[in-house]
Amino acid sequence: MFASAQLPQTLDKSDFKELEPQLRDDLLKAQLEMIERKDFSVIILVDGLDGAGKGESIARLYGWMEARHLVCNAYSEPSKEARQHPPFWRYWRDLPAKGETAVVFGSWYQPILRARIYGELDDDGFQREMMKVRRFEEMLANEGVLILKFWYVLPADVQKQRLKAIEKKKAARHVLADWSTLKNRDKASQTGEEIILATSKGYAPWFVIPSEDAEYRDAALAQTITRSINLKLADGTAKQVAAPPVVGGLEKRSALDAIDLSASLDKKTYEKRRDDLQEMLSEISDTKKFAKRGMVLVFQGNDAAGKGGTIRRVIRPLDPRIYQVHPISAPSDEEKARPYLWRFWRRLPRRGHVAIFDRSWYERVLVERVEGYASHEEWLRAYDEINSFEAELVGHGYLVCKFWLSISAEEQLRRFKAREETSYKQHKITDDDWRNRLKWDQYAIAAGDMIDRTSTRDAPWKLVSSEDKRHARVEVLQTICDRLKEEL
């Protein structure tokens, strides 16, 4: 998850200096209005890998906000008194009053992280702890607490350098949480992902902050807090308002930016690889092992990215009796009268069969988000609903392969014009395609968020350059064959 957080996200120091006065002004105005109105309180929970600069980031935040209405609560091992009470007692005790803000280090997630990483908490125990956390945070939200949770990430090599520097200082305030140091980095990252998947809700969202660049990190933190407080203030009631899942106002790279659109194949190489992979897919789909599984293929991407042509190359080697392609458009009146996932549940394949979705449930967080068909709260909570949906499919034995086919805006324009000029392709271009093109940047942001929030270990996204259609078709076939060989 959160592939974009692993990309270099930077803010030049001179640009930061220019931006800083506005950051401070906006943040302070939001805080002062919250203090005056006293409609809700704020909890800013800071977690993530050691060396990511959590303390430095909050120190700067103290310089920007009204410190008299800001408190920092840091938790380590529970005291003798705390052990005489329920585990959440010390967090209840320190809850900020309405109008006040509390920054939380070493939160209710720390004991769970530690126990999970050290093998003291099995899967069932972990799920029980997650349920307790969700209940606790939902209760706080219902009582007028705005909960903002930040997970700081760093590339491994940068973390290593920083931890060495911290160890040399031997300063009392730099006490390392051993669960998140280098020797446990992989376990910490995996457990962090599990926690974020389980507890990022509309009433208590997680924000993953790339922390290699201090200026970008702190600007992202401040802007996210400001936007979230302003959303809550605009609501006008004590009801929780879902905070935005992306940082606004900064140039933020998404996972889409990492796709190499120059990838291509010559015709001869393409035909050889295509034929080999189609033969492999035919053989695998005819095995007894495959007959015991179901497969769901999801195709999303830019308009005119070649989803239909790629799907035709996938189904060509398959027995027509075992697959069905579902082209997804606007929901019918019958479908609108039911939960949005209903129309996909009813199209799921039985064991030994394949369902191919040309667009899918992800339209909830793409078209419905950008065009306003789904409310802010509806599309924000859809990430968790989709992850749960796909986890249930995988748990039942389905193999879920998801593809994002990506092209440049220039290539899309060329393909649109070619469709208009070719009689047998004119049906592929509509007024909606041209309207959507005008919102290219909005769709790019929505797609980046979607990939970050729904690329899980069980159902990862495969990002495919489709600037060259031959490359895209082979890449998709290769991915499907590889996943089948791994799973069967």
TrEMBL record:
Reaction catalyzed: [phosphate](n) + ATP = [phosphate](n+1) + ADP
InterPro entries: P-loop_NTPase, PolyP_AMP_Tfrase, PPK2-related
A biological process term (GO) from this entry: polyphosphate metabolic process
Any Pfam family matching the protein: PPK2
Protein name stated in the entry: Polyphosphate:AMP phosphotransferase
Signal peptide: none
Record organism: Roseibium limicola
Keywords of the record: ATP synthesis
Single annotated GO MF: polyphosphate:AMP phosphotransferase activity
Domain Polyphosphate kinase-2-related: 12-231, 265-486
